[in-house]
Amino acid sequence: MPAPLPAQRTGYSRPSWIQRSPRVAFFGWLILLVVGFYVVRLWQLQFLEQGFYLSEAEGQLSRLIFIPPRRGVIYDRQGELLVRNIPAYNVTITPGYLPEDAERERAVLQRLSRLIDVPYSSQEEVEPYRLELGTVGRAHFPPYGEYPPPGLLERVNEVRYLDPYAPLIVAETIDRELAMVIAQEGGLTLPGIDVQIIPRRSYTTGPLTAQVIGFLGKIPPDMVEELQAQGYNPNVERIGYAGIEYEVEENLRGVPGHKYVRKDFLGKELGVIGEVIEPIMGDNVHLTLDTELQQVADEALRAEMAQVGCQRGVVIAMDPRDGQILALVSLPTFDNNFFAEGINSTEDLEELQALNDDVHGPLFNHAIADRVPPGSVFKIIPATAALQEGLINRHTIVNCPGRISLPNKLAPNDPGAAQPFYCWINLLTGGGHGPTDVVDALAQSCDVFFYEIGGGFPDSQLEGLGVKRLAAWAEKFGLGAPTGIDIPGEWQYDVSVPDDKWKREVYQESWTTGDTYNMSIGQGFLAFSPLQMVNALVAVANGGTLYQPQVIHHITDAEGNVIQEFQPQVIRELAVDDAVWAIVHEGLERAVTDGTSTGAQIEGVRVAGKTGTAEYCDNLAQEADLCPVPAGQTLPTHAWFMAYAPAEAPEIAVVAWVYNGGEGSEVSVPITHAVLDFYFKRAAGELPVAGEEVPAVENSGE
User: Helices in 422-464 by DSSP H: which ranges?
Assistant: First the structure.
């Protein structure tokens, strides 16, 4: 019987080669899948996303370039130019235009190195130390220093393949003569080397107005990205770092222009796309400063500081009718042209370090940033407060024996436990002012009178203002807050007037009557800026209007049109009776006619003023062993004097303050006298002829 046939397979059957090599089949299908994916993606890029990538490619070949505007200038109140723009010269290297031959490039860079005094390569400076570095395994250079900065070659190599057609600045603000030499050689012997002409600030009055005007500086690294988005060019433009340059940066800077340029893949500019939008020049700023008066104040302050050997002082002149600053001098100071010219050399860095290391802070505006004891110039506030509160009147008499003893609350019947308080005259003569009213107290600066109206005294049965009312009145005069002057740098921290709550929080101690006594004569914990004090005097002079001091008068555009006018800003009106102001004015005028400040008298002009001699003990005094002092000796003192004139219709108020200057009547009165004398003689056309001797000023009192 024949064998049965094998069963026949039905359905799909895999090819024999797959059956024999399944791995080969798997990889074959995988290759087909990958190729298919790329075909689909290619079709997507070619047809669906073509427009997007075309625009991206065009964007990479075109670039938005901002065109810096010309910065506005600054004038004083008379229209004198204080700040202007002058051409400055930078040297640039464009790596893409350097010779292709390495030897020729080396010759070009070495020639430039000799011209601008920048090393061709830092490696040349390393070479003498190469053996030593290798022998001892040093990781730094040279044996006792830092690795030298990169030379021209290293700086070029950093950008050679990244952006070869972007100019690289290698020297800034070079001399004009050197710039001309480089420019003349540029196309012939120095290919790839150019001179870039940029505007630079020139401060015509230099140190005289540096504290008000400020200066420009390079854009700091942490602000580059933010300001680039606003159209700043960090390689060319500078921003305000202080003073008016900082305060109105937006106005002075102007509006940048822009253009779109087409570049090749190496960054070489091929042409401009579309219309060029030209920049708009910055606005011009007109100040309230009187440069001539500023010069007189500066010279007078320097003369007195030199005479007494002091290193710091302030003079401020202000118009009490609207708060305009006529002069603002702060010494020591600096020359803002130093920053305008650029800090490019070792000598520049050393000079900058010296400015920073000076303990008297030439970079700080002491007129608005210093907080120091006001001394007796503060007495205008308790005098006004006691009269307005009804504690005293024009005829209230306080006896000044020269020394009073404040009983100890824990031992009121023990004279030995009582705390003595002295009047300044007792320290000089051993006596006192005797029976004194408020006018005499202001004129003679009687400390005992103000002790008693401030803190009370059992023997005179005066209640006294007390610390809360005294602090409240000081705040009404603007001493508890920044003045709001329109230049940066005013002290903003811990500006409150000290009181019992303040002492508990700061010292964890209770306020005492002795603290109130000290506060009443401008001592103790009180500390205010010269600007705050002259602003308080202005409120007295004009009959109760406290202004926000202002330095900016108005702003104009390039065509001279006024685009912003600064109106007087009133902080508050003090609720003080006219009769009270009349008494205070009488006392301050008497101080000049026959009191502590007779040296401030000006022929034909009624002057009112107040001297101050403020004891202090700060870190500098301690380092100089000027304080603390043994019992019975006095601390070092700041010299103060504040005045306004004409007394009947004030149009100028002046404060002069000299750090560690001694007696206000001897040091600060002559300074203020010089300012007022010039102001009124100029107004009357009576300025002395050059070479004519000016009579000496006599001083008396505190």
Answer: 424-429, 438-444, 447-455
Question: 162: helix, coil or strand?
Answer: coil
Q: Which amino acid is at 696?
A: A
What is the Cα–Cα distance from 227 to 225, expressed in whole angstroms? 6
Separation CA 39–CA 522 (nearest Å) = 89
Instruction: Give the SS3 label for residue 305.
Output: helix
Helix, strand, coil percentages in the chain from 3-state DSSP, rounded to 5: 40, 20, 40
> Who contacts 673 (Cβ-Cβ below 8 Å, separation ≥6)?
599, 600, 601, 602, 697
Distance CA 317, CA 294 (A): 9
Neighbours of 290 (CB within 10 A): 24
Under DSSP, is residue 639 helix (H, G, I), strand (E, B) or coil?
strand
DSSP state of 459: G
Alpha-helical segments (H) within 142-290: 152-159, 176-186, 210-213, 224-228, 243-247, 249-253
How many Å apart are CA 169 and CA 90, to the nearest integer? 7
State the distance between the two ends of the chain, measured CA to CA, in whole angstroms: 151
Of 253, 99, 113, which Cα lies nearest the Cα of 189?
99
The token pair that represents 229 in the structure block: 């988005």
CA dihedral 342, 345, 351, 353 (to 10 degrees): 100
Q: Is 606 helix (H, G, I), strand (E, B) or coil?
A: coil
Residue 609, H or E segment? strand 608-615
CB–CB of 398/388 below 8 Å?
no
- C-alpha of 379 from chain center: 30
The CATH T-level fold of domain 63-129+145-247+249-282 is Penicillin-binding protein 2a (Domain 2) (3.90.1310)
Domain ranges (residues) in the chain: 63-129+145-247+249-282, 291-684
The token pair that represents 692 in the structure block: 């004519």
For residue 318, the cross-strand partners are: 325, 653
How far is the CA of 512 from the CAs of 221, 515, 519, in angstroms? 52, 5, 11
- Which residue type sits at 644? Y
Domain 291-684 has CATH 3.40.50.620: no
pLDDT averaged per 10 residues, the chain (length 702) = 51 57 68 78 66 52 72 95 92 89 91 90 60 46 59 89 85 89 82 88 96 93 89 86 94 84 62 79 96 97 96 97 98 94 84 94 95 97 97 96 89 80 93 96 97 92 93 95 94 83 93 96 96 98 97 94 94 97 98 96 96 95 90 88 98 98 95 97 81 51 58
Give how far Cα 209 sits from Cα of 269, 327, 551, Å. 44, 9, 12
Q: Where are the alpha helices (DSSP H) in 529-658?
A: 530-541, 578-594, 619-623
Q: Are 456 and 382 in contact (CB under 8 A)?
A: no
- Which value, in Å, is the radius of gyration of the alpha carbons in the chain? 38
Q: What is the pTM of this model?
A: 0.84
Structural contact between residues 426 and 396, judged by C-beta atoms closer than 8 angstroms: no
Residue 373 sits at the vertex; the CA angle it makes with 367 and 378, to the nearest 5 degrees, is 95
